[in-house]
């Protein structure tokens, strides 16, 4: 698992490679700024070369909408229902016909706590808190809390054999970077995508983030670290007053006043360009100023949901208080990919809200009702607008929840489930995905993902693969991106 | 994995197809496979099984097991068995040395063998990495003679011009004086020159005017700040991080800023680079009494990581290697280094230097006591302790370093003995001796410091005073209670006496009287108890004061040549401390007695000792506590009989010895004999003057790093650094006074050298570059006269980005979100985890930050008004405006406008004035933190503000030309 392949560049610091591009640092930035889909890059096995904004092989998808549900939704009460839990309600694992999941060697392998201590294990089985039915031609079991999404079952590929190693909420970062809190910080998936492919548009951020991460320590999930700040996710606010850092003309500057200033800057820089005809940086700067000027209007325009029809707004649930927040974020995500944003990371719910140590039923009933309709509407909308074959949607969380009831509360609460890295469910839909697929499984009690199972980097590898990228070749020489596992595309869900 | 399988099959298929069609290119296809997978064990460094795989001849020759290939017969070749693990041959490379070859690599090898396993006849074997240029001693090279002597101001020019002359390159002329002043000022102090400085320099006709500027800048306190920020990049300066929202510290430490200030101070004092390195690695050992130096170990503190000591050690090894030595030790974490002669064991030997290290927090005079350093404990939040200084010490002198496999810190190599500290043998790192160091008492016993002793006595005296006050209050309460009791009794008797004669007999136990009587008696009993407790507490406080006085007296006699006999005073201190313990036990006993009594009272069993079965649990518990308290008193009493010199120290005591490991390491690194240290250092300095390095891979001087463009120059500079006492200002001076540094960056077009060396690889001109993030912000403030030049101190939180006008290096920096001021982040503020050189990106958000950001807007308005005032009062509007445009250009770009620029600016001013006169735009004020400076209501001034604002977005403002 921990083996990583040696390449001749293993020890080469990345800065040297960036410098080797010939154009220098500024040149590289500009090069990728202008990068577009196009020719296939050099064949596999050749020496590492810095990305040129082109995929490594023919891509299946152009853009990604990454829906992240923070806190850890229960796989058992969403997309991996387990009637056995109800059958053995109140029994301990040892009283069921199923092998003791706590004794499995997988147990230690799949949880690496940030401290040398095992988290409590909860042996008393907690029944399912909701019913379920089979949906679609594939007969996918989905719980009753997802009436809208259930109707889309044939569009979705569920992966029920996920596992991760962080048993705490830094697993949220792990889901995005592939690395445990104990290890060196790594760039997020969105940053790698942007680094590998660059932008599809001229006037919007390349890696946009909606609705989160609200806590500073979770900015790791959109960070770019050694790739450089250019590749970080740009949080956009659904607030027409201030959608992007410095993206809004100050209140005490008039539009004409600023336009004239931009014109003067351009004029003066052009005069310089005459004096320094070979200064590439200067020319690139002139161009970024033009982009910047356009961005000021493009970003608010892209996020102006009021221009959508009442029907569309209603389908996303903008008209109801419960679904408004998730609906706006999903709708904005669609508008952004439509305008060529490559990677949109969406937090449809607030930070950590799915974390149901107690009152799971109450909590999940409410949260599912908030996101079910908007997410289903997003899928329908992508189809309707012909974006289905261009955009891949990923629906994920940081870990699942324990089959046992959590009993550690001094107030005696016994109505929730603890964090559970050993098995959980994510799903994919859209470009390159085989809808109506159920891939993998957990055991009867929903405890362990049955081998061969998928570590979180398999999700990354799948996304990169769909975009035409080989994650290993994106690596920066001298950096070990993911030494637990580089990840492999989940072949069974690919169309 | 159906899908992956398909790709796999396709790859093999295509390779097989290629076999028939294409000849094999040994140099392009085959040799790289051996380099990648085999050289570490079968090359110049090692010849496992007597086998070398670095030439086709050697491969055909084979090793101990015979020929590695049968030319023409891949099926019978040992090499193929080895890489596939077939026919009972152990698969190569072994598991611990990396993964197996890819199928297409194996296929290529087979094709090569089948086609005859030929290689070029003149193929050279891999050269011995120990002979690598950077691993050879620095020998000062002779300064070359050049034909164009006029282009040489000092030896730096001689080396550069010599390299140019062999390529028919001619140096560019000197930059204009104004460009030069701006360049050197930004370079040395990180701030542009003001107009006044520009005019002073332009009118200084003395031949050494430029040298005077250089000296002024090097002596400026801002020099230390500017270059500290550079070295903070290399040394990974970071304020604390972890979970700031909570706040829970996982990395670095809140007091780390003292190390930042030490860097600034050391640079301004021109402390030798060698000394700086030594202090950062081992100040606790080489300067144990020196608190100024102690904070230098912030270098090691910065890497501290609460959750995983292995991660701390990994960072120490990797970055000590890269920052000081240009060695990539990190590549030898899982296996032997693939290029440099650093074994996997060398990695762990290097780690062993740091293995005993732990953090401590020292009390700084005039600040609150930070208390002992809080070690990591699961689920316990770490308190954010800001006062005091944080530093390191060797805690566990016998700390062992155990090797683990494959970079997996859980996979210890069973039965393998711990590795001793050491550096790689090829650099002489196996030669030096490590001797434990006896630390002076002041270093391991901070409680001897007079201010701590004084604080201790003051605190104990305050305790006594407080106890006395409490006792006095209790005594007054008792007097009051007695009086009250007497009063009640008097009233009762009086009531009895005044009973109407012959009337009804007064009730002898009228309940009202009984209640009052009982209440007053209870109050009296409580007051008595209060006095008793307060007396016990005062006695205890007094004895603690006595104990502290006696212990400090003994400390002073033992360690500070204080008066009295150390042994006698120690005995006194020991007894005083035990007396205090007895008094404390007695105090506890009184408390326990009173608790037991009140519990019984509460349950209606008045007298202690009466039995009422079953006793309530709380009464039982109170009785048990009392019994324990009585036992403790007895024990403390018995302890008083001991004759001992033992007593407790005042505060923390650390080990009196240190392992000396880091001293040995530091002396080996910061040493003239170390071939890497000075080369790596001058390369970093050079990079930050010229925007490009002599060795582009600044953190890798190993075999796989890039070769220097100017090896002799690098060595000459390294020798110059070392021979000049490792003084960095000397190197700066040499560089900035060289003609090469002073060359123009522009005017390249049409220059004869431009076509031959378009990238300026040979330094025939200067290369313009963008200001770093900090310089952009500092310059905006500085040019508007708003920069606050206060130095040092705790980091400023980043939400104070607009409120504070301090220099940018004093803002908080850490790798979490919000770890930079927002504006700095957009201009490539350094990644505090890894920044051996800055990135220079160019993104639209930078333009937006300048156009819409409040900082640029406010500073523009302030500056425009100053300049407008100076330019006013001329004969015509036009000349006023021309004077203003010139002043703005001079202030912001350090040059006057060209005629075309002046015309454009004049036209702009007219246009804006007309705009503002026409529709006098409503200036909606900005809100909140960004409220800032309102726009002028006067159309002309507002136009002037716009012009200055635009100039701050000028490419020439952001560039160092």
Give a description of the structure.
The complex is a heterodimer of chains A (495) and B (961). Chain A is built from 14 helices and 13 strands. Chain A is of the alpha/beta class and 495 residues long. The radius of gyration of chain A is 24 Å and the shape is globular. Chain A folds into two domains: 63-238 and 305-493, 3-Layer(aba) Sandwich (Alkaline Phosphatase, subunit A), CATH 3.40.720.10; 243-302, no CATH class. Chain B is mostly helical. Chain B has 36 helices and eight strands. In chain B, helix 19 (450-497) packs antiparallel against helix 20 (511-559). The longest helix of chain B has 49 residues, at 511-559. Chain B starts with a helix and ends with a strand. The model of chain B is unreliable at 1-21 (pLDDT under 50). The interface between A and B is large, with 98 and 118 residues.
Describe this structure in a few short sentences.
The complex is a heterodimer of chains A (495) and B (961). Chain A is α/β, with parallel strands linked by helices and 495 residues long.
């Amino acid at each position: 698992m921990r083996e990583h392949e040696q390449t001749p560049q293993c020890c080469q610091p990345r800065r040297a490679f960036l410098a080797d591009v010939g154009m220098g640092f500024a040149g590289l930035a500009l090069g990728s700024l202008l990068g577009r889909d196009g020719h296939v890059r050099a064949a596999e096995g050749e020496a590492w070369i810095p990305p040129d904004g082109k995929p490594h092989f023919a891509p299946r998808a152009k853009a990604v909408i990454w829906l992240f549900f923070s806190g850890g939704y229960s796989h058992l009460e969403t997309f991996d229902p387990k009637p056995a839990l109800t059958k053995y309600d109140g029994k301990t694992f040892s009283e069921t016909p199923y092998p003791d999941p706590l004794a499995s060697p997988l147990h230690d392998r799949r949880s690496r706590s940030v401290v040398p201590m095992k988290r409590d294990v909860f042996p008393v089985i907690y029944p399912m808190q909701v019913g379920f039915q089979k949906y679609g031609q594939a007969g996918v079991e989905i719980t009753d809390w997802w009436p809208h999404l259930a109707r889309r079952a044939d569009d979705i590929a569920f992966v029920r054999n996920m596992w991760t190693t962080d048993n705490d909420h830094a697993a949220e970062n792990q889901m995005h970077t592939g690395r445990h809190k104990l290890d060196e910080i790594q760039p997020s998936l969105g940053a790698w995508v942007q680094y590998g492919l660059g932008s599809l548009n001229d006037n919007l951020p390349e890696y946009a983030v909606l609705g989160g991460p609200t806590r500073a320590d979770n900015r790791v999930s959109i960070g770019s670290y050694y790739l450089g700040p250019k590749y970080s996710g740009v949080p956009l606010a659904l607030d027409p007053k201030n959608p992007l850092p410095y993206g809004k003309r100050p209140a005490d500057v008039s539009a004409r006043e600023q336009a004239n200033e931009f014109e003067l800057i351009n004029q003066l820089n052009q005069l310089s360009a005459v004096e320094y005809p070979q200064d590439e940086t200067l020319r690139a700067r002139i161009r970024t100023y033009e982009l910047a000027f356009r961005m000021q209007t493009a970003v608010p325009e892209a996020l102006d949901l009021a221009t959508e029809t009442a029907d569309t707004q209603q389908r996303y649930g903008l008209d109801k208080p419960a679904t408004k927040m998730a609906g706006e974020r999903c709708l904005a995500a669609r508008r952004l990919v439509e305008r060529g944003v490559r990677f949109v990371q969406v937090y449809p719910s607030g930070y950590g809200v799915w974390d149901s140590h107690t009152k799971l039923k109450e909590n999940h009933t409410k949260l599912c009702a908030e996101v079910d309709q908007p997410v289903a509407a997003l899928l329908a909308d992508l189809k309707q607008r012909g974006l289905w074959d261009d955009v891949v949607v990923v629906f994920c969380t940081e870990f699942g929840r324990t089959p046992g009831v959590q009993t550690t509360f001094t107030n005696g609460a016994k109505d929730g489930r603890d964090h559970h890295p050993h098995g959980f469910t994510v799903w994919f839909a859209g470009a390159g995905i085989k809808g109506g697929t159920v891939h993998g499984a957990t055991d009867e009690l929903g405890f362990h993902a049955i081998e061969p199972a998928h570590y979180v980097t398999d999700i990354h590898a799948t996304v990169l693969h769909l975009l035409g990228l080989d994650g290993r070749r994106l690596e920066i020489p001298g950096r070990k991106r993911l030494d637990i596992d580089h990840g492999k595309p989940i072949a069974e869900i690919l169309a | 994995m159906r899908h992956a399988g398909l790709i796999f099959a396709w790859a093999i298929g295509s390779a097989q197809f290629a076999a028939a069609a294409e000849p094999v290119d040994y140099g392009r296809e085959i040799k790289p496979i051996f380099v990648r997978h085999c050289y570490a064990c079968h090359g110049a460094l090692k010849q496992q099984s007597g086998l070398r795989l670095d030439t086709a001849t050697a491969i055909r020759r084979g090793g101990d097991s015979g020929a590695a290939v049968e030319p023409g017969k891949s099926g019978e070749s040992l090499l193929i068995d080895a890489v596939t693990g077939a026919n009972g041959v152990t698969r190569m490379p072994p598991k611990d040395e990396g993964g197996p070859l890819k199928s297409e690599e194996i296929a290529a090898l087979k094709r090569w063998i089948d086609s005859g396993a030929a290689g070029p006849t003149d193929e050279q074997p891999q050269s011995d990495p120990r002979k690598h240029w950077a691993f050879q001693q620095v020998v000062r090279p002779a300064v070359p003679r050049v034909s164009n002597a006029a282009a040489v101001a000092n030896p730096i020019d001689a080396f550069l011009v010599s390299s140019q002359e062999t390529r028919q390159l001619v140096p560019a002329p000197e930059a204009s004086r104004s460009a030069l002043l701006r360049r050197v000022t930004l370079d040395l102090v990180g701030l542009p020159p003001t107009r006044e400085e520009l005019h002073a320099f332009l009118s200084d006709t003395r031949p050494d005017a430029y040298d005077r500027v250089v000296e002024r800048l090097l002596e400026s306190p801002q020099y230390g700040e500017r270059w500290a920020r550079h070295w903070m990049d290399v040394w990974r300066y970071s304020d604390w991080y972890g979970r700031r929202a909570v706040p829970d510290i996982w990395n670095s430490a809140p007091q780390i800023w003292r190390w930042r200030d030490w860097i600034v101070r050391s640079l301004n004092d021109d402390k030798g680079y060698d000394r700086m390195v030594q202090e950062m690695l081992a100040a606790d050992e080489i300067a144990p009494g020196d608190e100024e130096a102690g904070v230098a170990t912030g270098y090691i503190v910065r890497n501290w990581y609460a959750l995983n000591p292995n991660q701390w050690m990994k960072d120490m090894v990797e970055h000590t290697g890269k920052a000081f030595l240009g060695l990539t030790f990190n590549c030898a974490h899982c296996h032997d280094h693939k290029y440099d002669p650093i074994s996997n064991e060398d990695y762990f030997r290097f780690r062993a230097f740091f293995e005993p290290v732990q953090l401590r927090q020292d009390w700084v005079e005039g600040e609150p006591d930070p208390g002992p350093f809080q070690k990591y404990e699961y689920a316990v939040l770490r308190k954010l302790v800001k006062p005091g200084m944080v530093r390191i010490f060797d805690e566990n002198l016998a700390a062992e370093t155990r090797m683990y496999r494959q970079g997996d810190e859980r996979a210890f190599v069973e039965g393998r003995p711990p590795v001793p500290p050491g550096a790689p043998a090829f650099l002489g790192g196996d030669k030096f001796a490590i001797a434990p160091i006896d630390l002076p008492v002041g270093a391991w016993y901070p409680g001897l410091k007079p201010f701590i002793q004084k604080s201790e006595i003051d605190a104990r005296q305050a305790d006594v005073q407080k106890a006395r006050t409490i006792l006095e209050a209790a005594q007054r309460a008792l007097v009051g209670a007695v009086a009250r009791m007497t009063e009640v009794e008097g009233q009762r008797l009086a009531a009895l006496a005044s009973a109407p004669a012959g009337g009804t007999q007064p009730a002898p136990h009228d309940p009202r009287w009984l209640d009052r009587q009982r209440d007053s008696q209870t109050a009296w009993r409580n007051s008595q108890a209060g006095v008793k407790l307060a007396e016990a507490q005062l006695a205890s406080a007094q004895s603690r004061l006595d104990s502290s006085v006696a212990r400090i007296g003994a400390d002073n006699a033992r360690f500070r040549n204080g008066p009295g006999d150390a042994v006698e005073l120690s005995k006194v201190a020991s007894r005083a401390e035990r007396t205090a313990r007895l008094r404390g036990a007695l105090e506890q006993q009184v408390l326990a007695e009173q608790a037991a009594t009140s519990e019984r009272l509460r349950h209606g069993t008045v007298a202690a000792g009466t039995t009422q079965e079953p006793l309530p649990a709380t009464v039982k518990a109170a009785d048990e506590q009392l019994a324990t308290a009585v036992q403790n008193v007895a024990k403390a009493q018995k302890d008083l009989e001991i004759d001992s010199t033992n007593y407790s120290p005042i505060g923390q005591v650390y080990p009196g010895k240190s392992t000396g490991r880091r001293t040995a390491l530091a002396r080996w690194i910061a040493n003239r004999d170390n071939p890497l240290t000075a080369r790596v250092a001058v390369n970093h300095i050079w990079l930050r003057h010229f925007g490009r390095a002599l060795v582009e891979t600044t953190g890798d001087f190993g075999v796989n790093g890039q070769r220097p463009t100017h090896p002799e120059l690098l060595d000459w500079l390294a020798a110059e650094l070392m021979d000049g006492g490792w003084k960095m200002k000397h190197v700066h001076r040499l560089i900035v006074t060289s003609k090469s540094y002073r060359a123009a960056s522009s005017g390249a077009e049409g220059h004869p050298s431009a076509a031959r060396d378009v990238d300026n690889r040979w330094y025939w001109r200067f290369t313009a570059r963008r200001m770093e993030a900090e310089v952009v912000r500092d310059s905006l403030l500085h040019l508007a006269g708003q920069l606050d030049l206060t130095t040092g101190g705790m980091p400023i939180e980043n939400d104070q980005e607009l409120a504070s006008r301090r220099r940018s290096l004093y803002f908080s920096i850490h790798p979490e979100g919000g770890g930079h001021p927002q504006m700095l982040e957009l201009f490539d503020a350094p990644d505090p985890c890894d920044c051996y050189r800055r990135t220079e990106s160019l993104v639209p958000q930078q333009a937006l930050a300048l156009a819409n950001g409040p900082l640029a807007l406010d500073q523009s308005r302030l500056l425009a008004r100053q300049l407008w005032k100076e330019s006013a009062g001329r004969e015509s509007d036009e000349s006023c405006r021309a004077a203003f445009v010139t002043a703005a250009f001079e202030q912001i770009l350090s040059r006057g406008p060209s005629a075309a620029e002046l015309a454009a600016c004049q036209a702009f001013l007219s246009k804006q004035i007309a705009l503002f006169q026409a529709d006098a735009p409503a200036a909606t004020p900005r809100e909140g933190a960004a409220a800032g400076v309102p726009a002028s209501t006067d159309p002309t001034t507002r136009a002037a503000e716009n012009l200055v604002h635009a100039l701050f977005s000028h490419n020439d403002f952001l560039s160092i030309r």
